[in-house]
Amino acid sequence: MEKEIEIYIHVPFCVKKCAYCDFLSGPGDEVTIEHYVEALIQEISQCNSKKRKSTSETVTTVFLGGGTPSILSPAQIERIMGILRETFEIEKNAEITIEANPGTVTREKLKAYRCAGINRISFGLQSTNNEELKLLGRIHTFKDFLESFHLARSCGFDNINVDLISAVPRQTVESWEASLKRIIELNPEHVSAYSLIVEEGTPFAKRYGEGTEGEKELPAEEDERMMYQRTEELLEEAGYHRYEISNYAKPGRECRHNQGYWERKNYLGIGLGASSLVDNIRYKNTDDLDFYMKHAGEPDKIQEDMEQLSVVDQMEEFIFLGLRKMQGISMKEFQDVFGRTLNECYGENIERMQKSGLIVMEDGFFRLTKRGIDVSNYVFAEILG
Ligand code: SF4
To answer: Are 341 and 248 contained in the same domain?
Structure first.
C-alpha cells in the first residue's frame, strides 16, 4: 500500500550563534560543511534499502531546516535535492521548504533553489527593529531582510514564511506591533510568531535568566500577554488565520510539513540530531558531529533512543500535539485510531478543563479556548494526568 512520509533535513551550521539560541547549531568552516553535505548524501543513500523501497512511500513534504541551510552553496543544495529524488518518490506537488537567514541568500542561490524544486522559503527575521536584532545577536538588519524578501519574490517564491519573536528584552508592545505591521505590509503567506524563552546554557540565560539583573529588562507578564493578543488581532485583521498556537497563514498556505508533525504523520529526520517517527517508533540521530560525519551511512550506529511507542504514549501525543491546532482534535478520529472514545480515556480530566473554561467541545472537535491557549501547557498536563 502507498504510504506517505515527510522528510526533515538538518543543516547545523550558522554564520554566528545567536545569543538566545539553544538549537543544535553553530558556525562551521567550508571544509566541515562540505564534509557534512557528503555525510547527508551517504545517510540519504542508505535509505534506498530494499526494506524502505518495498514500503513504496511517497514523500509529501521536505523541510531543510537548521541551523541555516541557506549557508550551503547552490551546488550543495542541488546535490542534496538530487539524491533525495533518486532515493525517494517525491509527490509532484510536494511542499519543499528551505529555512534562510536574511543576508545569506543571493539571486544565484534563490534561482538554484527554484530549479531544485524548492517552493517555499522561511525567513528567520525575528524583529524589524535593528536594536532588537542586535540584542538578539542576529547577523542581519531589517534592510538585509527586505532585500532578501524582495529577491525571493522576484525569483518566483510565492510561498514565504516570516519568523518573529516577541517578549525580547526591552521590547515594548508598540515596538512589537510595529514589527507585525511592517511584515503585514509585505504580505507574506505565513507568519510564525513565538515568544522568547530564555533557555539554559545560552548567553541570554546569563544576562536575562532568573535572578540576574537583566531579568528586569524582559517585558512584564501583562505586556507579554498583550503582545500575544495583538499578534492575533493584527494578523487576523490582515487576513491570516491562526491555525496553531504560534502559526498564522493566508487561506491554503498553512505549513503542510508542520501540520504533519501535529497530526503524527510518519517523518524521517536526516542529519545531525534529527528525530524520526516511523510507524510509531521514535528515534533520533546522534548529535555528535564528528561521529555523525564518520558513520552517516550506518543507521545502526547513528540512530539512538529508539522507542516503540505504547498505545498510551500514542494517545498522549495525539492529544498534546493535536490540541496545538486551533481546530483541535477530532473525537471520531481518536476513536477510529484507538478503538475507544476520548471520554472513556480522559473523561474526568476533560470535564474538569471544560468546567474551567479552558477547553470546549464543538462539532465533534475538542479544542482549547482563548484562555486555554494562554495556559496550554497547564491544560495538556491536567488532561493527561
Ligand atoms: S540563525 Fe537560528 S539556528 Fe542559527 S544560531 Fe541563530 S537562532 Fe540559532
So the answer is: no
